[in-house]
C-alpha cells in the first residue's frame, strides 16, 4: 500500500506564505503588476549633484594599549547593557573627531 500526500491541504496552508509567489489576480497579459512597499525606494537615475554630507567608513589598523582596549570593551559592554548600540568603532571615531577639533589640520 502506498500512502498518498494530500497536496491540496499543503497548498492551502502555504498559499499566503512569503516563500511562494502569488498568482496574478487578472489574466490580462498587458497588465502591469503593482508593487507596494513601505520602504523608500531609490530612483533609478543618478542625481546630477552629489551630497558630500555622508562620511565614508574605512577600515584601518592602529596600535593601542591593552588597557585602552580593555576600557573600551567595558564601555561598549555597559552601553549594550543599557540598551544602546555599544559600538567601539563609533566610540573611537568620536574620540578622533574630538582630537581633530582640538588639533586642527592646516590645509
Query: What class would the helix/strand composition place it in?
Result: mainly alpha
Q: How many distinct helices? A: 3
Radius of gyration: 27 Å
Tell me, rounded to a whole number, the average pLDDT: 78
How much of the sequence lies in strands comes to under 5%
Approximately how much helix is present in the residues? 25-40%
> How many E strands?
0
Uncertain ranges? none
Molecular structure report:
With 107 residues, this protein is an all-alpha fold. It has a domain at 64-107. It is 36% helix and 0% strand. It contains 3 helices and no strands. The longest helix has 16 residues, at 66-81. The model has no long low-confidence stretch (mean pLDDT 78).
Q: What descriptors fit this protein?
A:
107 residues
Quick rundown:
This protein is mainly alpha-helical and 107 residues long. It has helices at residues 7-14, 66-81, 88-102.
How do the helices and strands line up, and which of them pair or pack?
Elements: H1 7-14, H2 66-81, H3 88-102
Amino acid at each position: 500500500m502506498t500512502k498518498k500526500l494530500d497536496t491540496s491541504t499543503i497548498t492551502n496552508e502555504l498559499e499566503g506564505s512569503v516563500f511562494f509567489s502569488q498568482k496574478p489576480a487578472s489574466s490580462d497579459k498587458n497588465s502591469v503588476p503593482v508593487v507596494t512597499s513601505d520602504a523608500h525606494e531609490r530612483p533609478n537615475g543618478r542625481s546630477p549633484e552629489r551630497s558630500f554630507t555622508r562620511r565614508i567608513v574605512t577600515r584601518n589598523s592602529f596600535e593601542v594599549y591593552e588597557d585602552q582596549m580593555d576600557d573600551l570593551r567595558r564601555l561598549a559592554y555597559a552601553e549594550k547593557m543599557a540598551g544602546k548600540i555599544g559600538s567601539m568603532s563609533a566610540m573611537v571615531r568620536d574620540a578622533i573627531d574630538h582630537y581633530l577639533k582640538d588639533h586642527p589640520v592646516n590645509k
